[in-house]
User: Which sequence fits this backbone?
């Protein structure tokens, strides 16, 4: 049985009978498929024996008692019923779902698993770049082919450097931030202005509006004088 997740531990510590905990841990989870979160088919006889243990009075006699415990597990989120199951009827031989046995996965988990050296067709992962840009405080989250080309050209000269796809995009985001903080960002055709400590490209239309506003203010002031 795999290690309990934090979500499972929290749910098991909620107000539950110990019989519910035994049913979950030793009756359902022990044989569950962590990939699909499905349990093995419910076996009432096996579960009744498990719950009764060495109690000679055998308090558990019927499948509906198992169902009652499963209802409690469902209420705290440890068990989920497939849409075709009705807990008010027998579920003997049916599989349940244990939604908390797997930790929620990051959207970028696969990017951590694939490693490679730099190659000529490399491009940053757009979604990850935007998230990294937000974390790094990059104001202008756009980038151009030239930015990618310079980055790729630099690392092509270091073929022994192997990183995950996540790390490559992370490095690219850091490189963009350094460029924005450096002097000389932009060109004659793409004017920039300082926002905080970063240089940000200014859209021509916006700059024209600002200039027009200044001219109007100057003209209005001269008329008053």
Assistant:
């Amino acid at each position: 049985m795999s290690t309990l997740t934090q979500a499972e531990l929290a749910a098991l510590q909620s107000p539950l009978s110990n019989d519910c905990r035994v049913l979950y841990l030793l009756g359902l989870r022990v044989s569950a498929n962590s990939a699909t979160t499905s349990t093995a088919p419910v076996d009432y006889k096996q579960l009744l024996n498990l719950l009764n243990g060495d109690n000679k009075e055998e308090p558990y006699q019927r499948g509906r008692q198992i169902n009652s415990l499963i209802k409690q597990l469902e209420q705290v989120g440890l068990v989920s019923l497939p849409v075709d199951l009705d807990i008010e009827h027998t579920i003997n031989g049916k599989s349940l779902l244990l939604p908390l046995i797997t930790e929620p996965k990051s959207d970028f988990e696969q990017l951590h698993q694939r490693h490679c050296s730099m190659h000529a067709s490399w491009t940053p992962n757009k979604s990850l770049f935007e998230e990294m840009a937000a974390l790094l405080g990059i104001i202008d989250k756009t980038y151009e082919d030239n930015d990618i080309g310079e980055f790729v050209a630099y690392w092509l000269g270091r073929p022994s450097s192997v990183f995950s796809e996540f790390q490559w995009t992370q490095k690219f985001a850091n490189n963009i931030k350094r460029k924005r903080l450096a002097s000389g960002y932009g060109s004659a055709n793409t004017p920039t202005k300082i926002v905080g400590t970063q240089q940000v490209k200014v859209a021509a239309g916006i700059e024209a509006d600002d200039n027009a506003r200044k001219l109007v203010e100057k003209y209005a002031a001269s008329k008053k004088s």
Observations:
- The chain has a mean pLDDT of 82.
- Residues 1 and 133 are 40 Å apart (CA to CA).
- The two ends are 86 Å apart (CA to CA).
